Amino acid sequence: DMPFTCQGAPSYAMGFAGSAFLERVAKEMDLPDRAYTVSGTHFAQGYTTQDATVINADGMQADCDNINLNKKISPSFRSDVFGPGLEGFFYKCEKVGDKNKYWFTITTSSHSDVVKLCDVNTTYPIVYDSQHRTYWRDEPFTCIGV
Fold it and tell me: Which of 15, 53, 136, 144 is most enclosed, with most CB atoms within 10 A?
């Protein structure tokens, strides 16, 4: 299921040499030469309004369909929480009960951002997704190997 297996705490990647694909992705995303990278899963729930009282099943399904078909690169993931510099790649989505479960790989040059991302106590404000006309409540991220 996961494209990476991590053992221990995040470590610096020493570049993307040896993989034309990774070199191209790194160049397109303007990734730092040395970055922390973590993978894992994450749950989110979509709503019709910002007060998060009515679930938006159609918006949630559309987001899952989009990620499963096209994948998603977020060049400044959750800048409202982390500021600039967190690059996200979301590559799989499944509906689990009344939530979406996402598989992700995120990279940043900031060790503290990795720690914050992988902290179960980090809270995320509700954000609006205009593409799917959905307000999202993100739950904590579960990072593998951290």
Answer: 136
- At position 72, the amino acid (one-letter code) is K
Task: Identify residue 49 by its one-letter amino acid code.
Answer: T
Q: Name the pLDDT band for 19 (thresholds 50, 70, 90).
A: low
CA atoms within 13 A on the CB side of 27: 7
Answer yes or no: is pLDDT of 3 > 90: no
Residue pair 119/49 in contact (Cβ under 8 Å)? The answer is: no
Residue in 81, 76, 73 with CA at minimum distance from that of residue 119 = 81
Locus of tokens 């060790």? 111
Tell me, yes or no, if the pTM score tops 0.85: no
Residue 70's contacts (CB-CB under 8 Å, 6 or more residues apart) are: none
Q: Are 59 and 127 in contact (CB under 8 A)?
A: no
For the beta carbon of residue 112, count every other beta carbon within 10 angstroms: 10
Which whole-number Å values give the CA distances from 28 to 22, 24, 31, 77, 110, in the listed order?
A: 10, 6, 8, 16, 19
Are 26 and 35 in contact by the 8 Å Cβ rule? The answer is: no
Nearest CA-CA partner of 139 in 97, 85, 91 = 97
